Amino acid sequence: MAGTNHRVFAIQYAHRDTNSSECFHGDYRREPMTMDYFVWALSDGARTVVVDLGFTEPVAARRGRQFLRSPADGLRQIGVDPDRVEHVIITHFHYDHTGNHAAFPSATFIVQESEMAFCTGPLASAGAFRHSLEADDLHALLDLNFAGRLAFVNGDAEVVPGVRVHHVGGHTAGMQIVSVATERGTAVLTSDASHYYQNFEARRPFNTLHDLPGAYAAFRRIRELASASDLILPGHDPLVLKRLKPVAPGIVELV
Asked: What residues does 42 pair with on adjacent strands?
């Protein structure tokens, strides 16, 4: 990928205990597993692009998640001032990616047109989809749209030199992944197109789906974009904290 090289940071802000039946489509074993929640920072030394917003502490309490810190506090630990962040990519509109928007008063939020259309359309209230959404966050996104602070993408687009978004679908109607130029080549932040390494490595889709064939197609697109398999970074895998370089407690960097 042509463009400016970036450092890639993963910031853990929450944790939960779960099981394999919640994490893999068609799995009925209910084997114990854990899930971590991350926001990501992509820095070229002059500016930082943030990927996803996480959820707030009240949402964590209501949904039974262990809240570790606010994503904004995690960003400050690596020297990023949320007040000055100009670009935030929202990969999709599930509750763990759309909170904390007020922490970024200077930002434009990059979203897929198809995600906004689906999550404000007739099926958003259906039980299979409603559970993953936070109405207050959707209201906030509508307000941000009226304020001119949403940048809509229909497919693939460059956010800044070296950082691009790519619509893949599957997990949600407007699921987008992020490719980023690094010194080692193109890294891919899969977000929830692949929650765990196992999802894309073994082609085992996550259990929450909008389009099952689309989820398999997303695995293929992830591999096409990444320069190497170890530059693929899943959205919720606790192994991210073990495979990347520790920077601070719960914060790691791709090297």
From this structure: 8, 49
Residue pLDDT, tens place only, 27-59:
999 999 999 999 999 999 999 999 999 999 999
Run of H or E including 18 = strand 7-19
d(CA 236, CA 200): 13
* AA identity, residue 227: S
CA of residue 125 relative to chain centroid, distance = 22
Q: How does residue 164 score in pLDDT terms, banded at 50, 70 and 90?
A: very high
Question: How many Cβ atoms from other residues are within 10 Å of residue 201's Cβ?
Answer: 14
Q: Where are the domains of the chain?
A: 7-253
For 7-253, which CATH class?
alpha beta
How many angstroms separate the CA atoms of 77 and 27, rounded? 38
Report the alpha-carbon distance of residue 197 to residue 57 in Å, rounded: 27
pLDDT in tens, 206-247: 999 999 999 999 999 999 999 999 999 999 999 999 999 999
**CB of 13 within 8 A of CB of 38?**
yes
